[in-house]
Specification:
single chain, alpha+beta, Threonyl-tRNA Synthetase, Chain A, domain 2, Ubiquitin-like (UB roll), five-stranded mixed β-sheet, four-stranded antiparallel β-sheet, about 35% helix, disordered N terminus, mitochondrion, ribonucleoprotein, Beta-grasp_dom_sf, Pro-tRNA_synthetase
Length: about 350
Amino acid sequence: MAARTVCQMLQRRLASSAAAARLSSAELRSHRSALFSKEQARQRALFPRTEKIEVTLRGPGLQGTLLVMNRGVSTPHSCTRHLTEWHVMSSALALVDGQPWHMHRPLTRSCDLTLLTFKDEDPQIVNQAYWRSCAALLGHVLDGAFKDEFSVELLKIPEVPVTAGAFCCDLVLDSRLDSWTPTEESLRSFTRDALQLVQKDLPWEPLDVSPSVALEIFSHSRCKQEEVEERAAQSQNGTVSLYRCGDHVTLSGGPLVSRTGLCSQYEVTCIHTVGESAWGVRRRAQGLSLPMNLTANHTVWRKLRKRAERLVEIPSSSTVTPPPPIAEAPPTAPPPLQ
């Protein structure tokens, strides 16, 4: 049984390398998104009949408000639409019976619901979800920022506190780009791409899936397959949490905020080389952001940016250790940005 499991894992990894060689970055994103939509539709079909649930709202001005919603269909965001425009626009995350819950995750039972904003008396939970979302957005940008002939392997997103001063996204670029050093113009280009996603106000769509579905979605990536297996082993219910923004699908160890438009200021500040790994040269992209209604003036932002340029140290245990790569391309350094 163990030998068969090892054989299946090797087959997946060999197949993923072949798939990555055939598909461009854009094709890979489209493939992942299509599989995400397929599983999303399958899960929604599990609730063919309309069953009502009672949602009791908690929080300032809403204490005890009762909404009758649809089981498996209605979300915390759906609930805000029965309240005010301020609740629709400001709610970044929710608590369902005291547990963090994404704004677009369907409610499956009668529950108590608390809507969280950046202006709450204790915004720690929503701030951490925001920081995590900013890192996921940076991964979205980097995944599509290089020419199709260059591979981009997004590693497990480090979970860092807001007090670190910068959010992070670890990655390994094509070995032909090992000597590439990002310029200020490169960083500005990444920032422009991120701000375009912010302006589009795209939702982060959540989806909990079985490990087998997640492995199929990330069949192109040996690194992501290992991350799927790790997260599934750590999960209490054996599922893996995925999020989609546009056509970009990512794994996450915690809830994200509802949409990209909650960002007010956003800047990619630096990309550090943090050493060799079994995947290749590992880099750490970092950035700085403030949510809506919490903007900083130019002087304050400059000081925050300077701090966000310093390398954020991450314990090695927070990263995935992959098997040796199958092959390496000859080293050259052509311009990577599209």
